[in-house]
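quick one, 247 residues, struct below
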Amino acid sequence: MALPTKKIEAAAKVPAPRRAPAKKTPASKAGGKRPKKPDSATVAEIFARFAKANPHPRSELEYVNPFTLLVAVVLSAQATDAGVNKATRRLFASVDTPAKMLTLGEERLREAIRTIGLFRTKAKNVIALSQRLVTDFNGEVPQTREALESLPGVGRKTANVVMNTAFGVPTIAVDTHVFRVSNRIPLAPGKTVLEVELGLEKIIPQEYMQHAHHWLILHGRYTCKALRPECGKCLISDLCRWPEKRV
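---
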């Protein structure tokens, strides 16, 4: 059964990703106290190391302009970047504006992205947002969060990604990786993605804000994994206070 078509991200707006119960550790036996949040010097050191290791992080979604980035991020909800790229590589070679997307039409778009989860609802949203862009924004992707979130299929995370990646606004887009890493280290622990986002905005030094969410996403995707974190190769393992750290 299709999900509501207003916002595909609504399906992803859960308070927190489910995780398996944590194993008993000295910290949990001592009353379940969470590790304290790091001080400002530690936070600065964490991001300084990320910056040194990867000075210019990029989104792993493939796109050619702000419109195709917007579409790619909408399609990436509950899907992998690799899976989205596989479906959109050929699509974006010829369909790179809202007008061209409307000419393509919903049926042919569905066929182009059918390998992506929830492709029917996503196709409907992409056509609807393309129509809004043509009708209300002169075919251009808006640059404010309020305007972006008014588009079908676009929620706060998608808006933050587009603002940051396409327009250079220092936003924090909290996906499942950022949520996990922020709670584990911990940086800005929270029970909801919004709580984590606002917490990170308060503690990350301004000089690192532009790339912060990219570093955290990549760290969570390739090192601080959900099930088997590779703590032995983590460049901030000595600064991490997670009681189940695998070192």
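Residues 66-167 form a domain with the Endonuclease III; domain 1 fold (CATH 1.10.340.30).
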